[in-house]
Specification:
243 residues, single chain, 0% strand, globular, 78% helix
């Protein structure tokens, strides 16, 4: 793995993203729009304060998973990835370069979403806002890594979109957003422990309740391990072409 090649890959992807206005609108605008709808629907109630931080942790993973999986598949279909890998560049350089580029985008996304949620929509977070941003960024990077790995299973962009229900919806059901995990059937509660989204929601719940680093460091550590594991899987399954 070469730092120069990794950074060159990240710079190329960032250059492409800068000119992809539709992707930028999706990444930045969709979470803000959805949070705005929640704030509007439940205006005058504590719903936004209670569920807003969890949604801030939820949206980045879903959006970045979708964007990364489709973008990677598009590069493979166009032959860009095949031409790139004829150069002296390793799979790890490509994967980490992609993740670095999307991590920059994730940082901007987290700042925009948290800023709108707190200062425009009036969401009240008892815990440190910096930790809210940190969890959102890690969650978005995890979505990128899962998207890179998931794109290896797809041959078309439609198939990449189809992966989202298979990989994301089970996590949505068992992460604790719809029902407290300790009230779930024991099998589902055990299953939730192997899903990364569970720990993002758990960290956001602790922060919403006024927790600090002591309360969320375990969840942050587990999420970071999931990121590393997903990157290893993505690097080992990366293919040059779709066929």
């Amino acid at each position: 793995m070469s730092a120069h090649l990794t950074l060159a890959t990240a710079a190329r992807v960032l250059h492409q993203l800068r000119h992809d206005h539709r992707t930028l609108a999706l990444v930045m605008g969709l979470p803000v729009l959805l949070l705005g709808l929640v704030a509007w629907m439940f205006d005058g109630t504590p719903v936004l304060d209670q569920f807003g931080p969890m949604l801030v942790g939820l949206f980045p993973l879903i959006v970045m998973f979708l964007v990364t999986s489709v973008a990677t598949l598009r590069e493979r279909q166009s032959g860009t990835l095949e031409r790139l890998m004829t150069l002296p560049i390793g799979r790890a350089d490509v994967v980490v370069g992609y993740v670095l580029a999307f991590a920059v985008l994730a940082c901007v996304q987290a700042l925009v979403v948290v800023g709108f949620a707190v200062w425009v929509f009036g969401m009240d977070v008892a815990g440190p806002l910096g930790l809210v941003v940190l969890v959102a960024v890690i969650d978005a990077v995890l979505g990128c890594a899962l998207g890179l790995g998931g794109s290896a299973l797809a041959r078309t962009e439609f198939q990449a979109v189809q992966l989202m229900p298979a990989l994301i919806f089970p996590q949505l059901i068992t992460c604790g957003l719809l029902m407290p995990r300790d009230e779930m059937p024991q099998l589902l509660e055990w299953l939730s422990r192997v899903f990364p989204l569970t720990y993002a929601i758990e960290a956001m719940q602790d922060l919403a309740a006024g927790g600090g680093w002591e309360q969320v460091r375990g969840a942050v550590g587990v999420m970071s391990l999931f990121v590393v594991g997903a990157l290893v899987v993505a690097a080992t399954t990366l293919r040059r072409r779709t066929a």
